From TrEMBL:
PANTHER family, per database record: RFBJ PROTEIN (PTHR48090:SF7), UNDECAPRENYL-PHOSPHATE 4-DEOXY-4-FORMAMIDO-L-ARABINOSE TRANSFERASE-RELATED (PTHR48090)
Coiled-coil region: none
Segments of this protein annotated with the region Disordered: 253-277
Basic residues composition bias: residue spans: 253-264
Protein name from the UniProt record: Glycosyltransferase family 2 protein
Positions of transmembrane segments: none
Source organism of this protein record: Streptomyces pratens
Domain Glycosyltransferase 2-like, first and last residues per copy: 34-163
Family membership noted in the UniProt record: Belongs to the glycosyltransferase 2 family.
One family name in Pfam for this protein: Glycos_transf_2
InterPro entries in the cross-refs: Glyco_trans_2-like, Glycosyltransferase_2, Nucleotide-diphossugar_trans
Length: 277
C-alpha cells in the first residue's frame, strides 16, 4: 500500500505522473480513495453532497437504505460511475458496513447524505492519513471546526459522553458522535464493527483507541441538513451510545493486549492515547 503525498509538478515524467492523482496544483496522492455515502430518501440532498466531492477520488459507494424516492436515480445522474449497494439490514451502522465491504480503495471516507458535510474537506482527511495517521477523525469542536446543526442538549450530551470515553479509554477526543471520518482500509480488520445504529461512530472511535491505532482529529464544519428530517433521536440514541461505552469498557483489558504494528508512524502526529505523543 502506498502512502505518498508529493508535489504535483509539471516536470514529472509520464510514468510517474500516471501513478498519482492530482489533488491540486501543489499536491498529488497515490492511494485510491473511496467515499461511502449511506442514504435513505435523500434524493433532494444528493446534488449538494455530490457537488462538493473532489473529482480525484477513486470511487463513490452509495448505500441505499430501501429508499422510496429516486435517491438511486439521482445519484447515478450526478455521478455516472457511482457504485450502488442495496442495504439488506437496517440502521446507519449496517449501511456503513455494507459500504465498507464494497470499497476497493486503500483509503475510505465516510460522508453523510444530508448535505451537512463539505466534501472539500476530504483533502484534509487524506493528507492526515498519507502523513502517518491510521484514522482521521472529524471534529466539530477542534480549533477551526464548528456546527450549525446541534441543539444545546445534543452538545451537552456529546460533551459528557466524550468526556467519559476520554477518561475510561485514555483518549483525547474533542468530539465523539460525528459521522465524517476517514481511515486506511486495514483498520477494518482491527475494529470489527458489530453494531447497526447511529452509535457506530462512537464504537469506531473507542475501538481505534483500544487497537492502538494512530488518530488525528480534523477540524470540520457541520452544516444544517438541507431537506427532510433526521432519523436521529437525541435521547434514544444517547442511551445507545452510553450502552456501547459501557459494553466496550467491560472488555477493555482483553482488547488492549492485542498487538498492533502500523507502517504509518509519524512522531509529529498527535495520538489519542493517554501518553505523550
Amino acid at each position: 500500500m502506498s502512502s505518498v503525498l508529493q508535489p504535483a509538478t509539471a516536470d514529472q515524467n509520464p510514468p510517474a505522473a500516471k501513478k498519482y492523482r492530482p489533488v491540486s496544483s501543489h499536491l498529488a496522492i497515490a492511494p485510491p480513495v473511496s467515499v461511502v455515502i449511506p442514504a435513505m430518501n435523500e434524493a433532494e440532498n444528493l446534488p449538494y453532497v455530490f457537488k462538493t466531492l473532489p473529482d480525484w477520488i477513486h470511487e463513490v459507494v452509495l448505500v441505499d437504505g430501501n429508499s422510496t424516492d429516486n435517491t438511486v436515480e439521482v445519484a447515478r445522474e450526478l455521478w455516472p460511475d457511482v457504485k450502488v449497494v442495496e442495504q439488506r439490514g437496517k440502521g446507519k451502522g449496517d449501511a456503513l458496513n455494507a459500504g465498507f465491504q464494497a470499497c476497493t480503495g486503500d483509503i475510505i471516507v465516510m460522508v453523510d447524505a444530508d448535505g451537512s458535510a463539505d466534501g472539500n474537506e476530504i483533502v484534509s482527511y487524506v493528507s492526515a492519513l498519507v502523513s502517518g495517521a491510521d484514522f482521521a477523525k472529524g471534529s466539530r469542536f477542534a480549533n477551526g471546526g464548528g456546527t450549525d446543526d446541534m441543539t444545546f442538549i445534543r452538545k451537552l450530551g456529546n460533551r459528557i459522553l466524550c468526556g467519559v470515553v476520554n477518561r475510561k479509554f485514555g483518549a483525547r477526543y474533542t468530539d465523539l458522535c460525528y459521522g465524517y471520518n476517514a481511515f486506511w482500509r486495514h483498520c477494518l480488520d482491527k475494529i470489527d464493527l458489530d453494531c447497526t445504529g447511529f452509535e457506530v461512530e462512537t464504537l469506531m472511535n473507542i475501538r481505534v483507541v483500544k487497537a492502538g491505532l494512530r488518530v488525528q482529529e480534523i477540524p470540520s464544519h457541520e452544516y444544517l441538513r438541507i431537506h427532510g428530517t433526521s432519523n436521529l433521536r437525541a435521547v434514544r440514541d444517547g442511551f445507545r451510545v452510553l450502552g456501547v461505552i459501557l459494553g466496550e469498557r467491560s472488555n477493555r483489558r482483553a482488547l488492549r493486549r492485542r498487538p498492533h504494528h502500523s507502517p504509518h508512524h509519524s512522531p509529529l502526529l498527535d495520538t489519542v492515547r493517554g501518553k505523550a505523543s
